[in-house]
Amino acid sequence: MDILELQQSVKHLKVLYVEDDLTINQQFAAFLKEFFDNVDSAYNGLEGLELFDQTAYDIVITDIQMPKLGGWDMLESMYAKKSDLFYCVLSATDLEVPSNAHYDVIMPKPMTLEGLFSMVELVRKKYSI
Fold this sequence. Notes:
Layout: H1 3-10, E1 14-18, H2 22-32, E2 38-42, H3 45-54, E3 59-62, H4 71-81, E4 86-91, E5 105-108, H5 113-126
């Protein structure tokens, strides 16, 4: 499958991206918009939960270390409400993963184009696209 076919297969999915660093958030959200038509950004876990409660997302991509509400706690709340989404954790460091954590994949931060392709393939498998 080439890049255009890959993009076409997932562009309709709605993405929530949560990252507290303003510059990284803006740059990576723009990167995601090359693949997905609907990308919303939040700057901490509380904002992420607010958007999550207002919109039906297919994919949640989040940082873990954030102010107000960390990524693991945010994901736990989201998973309790909707367990069938694709949850992607981004981290620049080795993570201590809670035993009750719910996620589909942990990807290195910053995510590369190859990393995005890998994540998209996992999304396609989960949703049988």
